[in-house]
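User: Before I run my own analysis I want an independent prediction to cross-check against. Here's the chain; please return only the structure tokens and, at the end, one sentence I can use as a sanity check.
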Amino acid sequence: MRIRTLLLLLLLVPALVAQDGSKQVVKMLKELGKDAGPQAADRVTPYLKDTDVEVRREAVTALVRLGGLNSLDPLVQATKDSDEEIQIRATDGLVNFYLPGYIEFGLTASLKRAGSSLKGKFTDTNDRIIPPYVQVREDVVRAIGAVARGGISDQSRANAARAVGVLRGRAALPDLAEALKSKKTPVIYESLVAIQKIGDPAAAGSFAFLLRDPDEKVQITAIETTGQLRNKDAAERLREVLGESKKIKVRRAALIALAKLPDPGNRPVYEQFILDRDDGLRGAAAEGFARLKNPEDAVRMVQMFNEEQKMNSRLSLAFAAVMLGKRDLAEMSPLQYLINTLNSVAWRGVAHAFLIELCREPDIRQAIYPTMHQRTKDEKIWLADIFARTYAADARPVLEKLSQDGETEVAQAGARAIRTLGLQQ
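Assistant: Structure tokens:
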């Protein structure tokens, strides 16, 4: 009996020694993670190949904390690990390099382990995206795309798909197309949003089959993305969804998407809903009339704007009125109303999108430029981004003046906008 006990102890000792050694390595990596020195990442990298998963997890955590250019190659390497947590942390770390602070809001921030189970929660909003002037290494995009396509878990795949969208990773579009074939809603949803953020019309055909998906969240996102990518080939299916669906959110999304596909053949549809009792449908129809650009619709859109009580549809009617020719900046004018809405936290996103589209028209920009000195801080900040996204050369003098504004936030917005504007000049 004593011999058997001794033999058992002899077998256990190496394992105990190894376990103790791993704890020491983990402790050492935690300390290294606090070191901001340029060589620290090189010291951590070898531990990404350790046989102990706890060591590898701590190594990738240390690399994320260290950040910097030296962390990119090892984090790309870590995305190929067979551990779910390591894939997630490496993915978020790569995004954090290009969008500082992301690690505090990404999936990593909520990760909790209960035994062998790893749980995390995505934030409700998925609107983070790198500025247009930030260039991402293609091998980084491809590494994250590979996780979206075939990561170790649905959670790591969905997280990678979200990351591709944040980075505007066009090189990963084939991976997102494969991810869309997943039967897991989070993976499909995050892939659709990523495609929407990338904004490449060539990707529109990859998700057409989802326009009738039984999951409402997926269906609506597929419809929204179809409109965003201006996929005219899907117009007939959108009309069918609009006519057949009993769900008001689906019908709104379908009509908004149709409104982004200007075609005189859609006029009867817009006429059908312009007086609907639902303000979302009324607003979507107004957007449709706006993009048809028929001057004969102008008087009606202005009148309806003046009479409308609901904020949602009133913004859409303001957009329509300006698009159809109402371009003065009188106190209660549609254009002034849209600009004033940039001060509203709840609605500025809607006004921002409309104004980007409107300010592609030179005469609308020229109407706004002379009034910039009297704008509020929020209006200046948001208009700077709007002018930059028109990529119009005539915006540069205005943006240069904003970059010298006495308000620090306005000056910073002006400087960012100049960098964005420079992409197309």
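Sanity check: Residues 328-425 form one domain.
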